[in-house]
Amino acid sequence: MRKKEMEERRERRIIMFPLPLTGHLNPMIELAGIFHHRGFSVTILHTSFNSPDPSRHPRFTFRTIHHNKEGEEQDPLSQQEVRAMDLFALIRVMKQSYAEPFQVGVPRVVLRTTSVASVCAFAAFPLLREKGYLPIQDYTLDDPVIELPPLKVKDLPVIETKDPEELYRIMKDMVEGAKSSSGVIWNTFEDLERLQLIDLSRNFQVPFFPIGPFHKYSEDLPSTKNNKEDYAITDWLDKQEPKSVVYASFGSLAAIEEKEFLEIAWGLRNSEQPFLWVVRPGLVRGVEWLPCGFMENIGQKGKIVKWANQLEVLAHPSLGAFWTHCGWNSTLESICEGIPMICTPCFTDQRVSARYIVRCMASWDNVGTK
Ligand code: UDP
Questions:
Q1: Is the ipTM of this complex over 0.95?
Q2: What is the pTM of this model?
Q3: What CA–CA distance (Å, rounded) separates 36 from 42?
Q4: Can you provide one Gene Ontology molecular function annotated for this UniProt record (predicted)?
Q5: 42-52 per-position pLDDT tens digit
Q6: Residue 249 DSSP code
Q7: Other CB atoms closer than 10 Å to residue 246's CB: what's the count?
Q8: Going from the N-terminus, what domains does the chain have, and what CATH number goes with each?
Q9: Residue whose CA is closest, atom 5 of ligand 1?
Q10: Which residues contact 174 (CB under 8 A, 6 or more apart)?
Q11: Which of 128, 189, 213, 301 is an S-S bond match for 332, by CB 3.0 to 4.6 Å?
C-alpha cells in the first residue's frame, strides 16, 4: 500500500468492543492487528472486568467503558454470579449496563468468534423447537438432526439452564443483531466451512467476510512468552520425543466435575504418553485433588500447569495430540498446526465443533469423541 494511502487510512478509526471473555478477546485483538496492518487506527473498548493489558499492544488505543446505571457504585460485572461465569448473567449485565453508548448511528460490523456451522445451528433454533428437537429429551440424544447433518441431538449447542426461554431469546438477538449489521466477520476460512458459509449467507443476506484464522495473519497475538512458567513449559517440551506429547486443555471457561477430573488424570497417566495438562483455577467444580502420590508416580512424564501459551505449545515439534473441549479458537489453532484432536466438548458451540472435527478428520486414526 502506498504511503499516502496508508496515512489517509490511519485517520479512519475502527472501534472494537469484545465480550470480556478470553475466547472473544483473543480473536478480537488478533483482528485489531489485521486492521492496523491495513492502515486503520484501532480503539479497543473494554470493561474493567477481565481487561486486556494495553502495554502488550502499544499500537492500539484502549479505553475502559463504564457501566451506565446511574447511582450504581459497584461495577455490575463484579457481581458474584457473573464472576462465577454464568454466561447468562454476563450477557444480561452487558445488555443492561453497557449497551447505551452503542445506540448511535455508527455503521456496525459483527465479529462472530464461533464456527459458521454453530451459528447455522443457533439460527435454526426456532425450527428445531417447532420440530420438537428442543428442549432436548434424554431419550433422543443419539437421534440425527435431519435438518442439520451431521449433527445429532446431543450435539445441539445448548447450555443447561432453568430458563430455556432466556437461551432462545439470547440466540434470537444474536442472529437478529448479525442480520441487521453491515456485515459479519468470521474467524474461519472458506476451505474449512464453504457449505455452511453458502447456506447461512442465503439466510442472513448481509456480506460475509471469512478472513480467518486471524492468528496466522496478525502481528498482534494475545499471548507472548512472558513468564517463568512459559519458559519451564518450553524446556520440558524440548526434552520430549517428536509428536509424543498429549496436551490437555479445556479453554478459559469450561468447568468439569471432580469425577471427570479424576478420569482425565487416570486417562493421561494410563496413556503412558508424556502429557502437559492445563488445570486452571476454576476448571473443577468442587475440590480439585489428585490421588495421593499421583504426581510422584508420574515423575517427569507429566506436567501440570495453571495456564500455557497455547499457540506456542501447539506449534512445538513434540506435540502429538490435543485433548480439547473444542472451543473454536482451540479448534482453529489445532487445525493450523495439524495436531489431531481428542474431543470432550462441554457446552454450546463446542459440541457442534466436536461433531465436525470427528467427521472431517475421521480418516485420521487418533481422533475420537464421547
Ligand atoms: N488458551 C491459552 N492457554 C491455555 C488455555 C487457552 O492460551 O492454557 C487460549 C487458547 O489459545 C485460545 C483461548 O485461550 O485462544 C481459548 O479460546 P477457545 O475458543 O478455545 O475456548 P473458550 O475459552 O472460549 O472456551
A1: yes
A2: 0.93
A3: 7
A4: quercetin 3-O-glucosyltransferase activity
A5: 999 998 888 89
A6: E
A7: 20
A8: 3-216 (3.40.50.2000), 228-366 (3.40.50.2000)
A9: 251
A10: 122
A11: 213
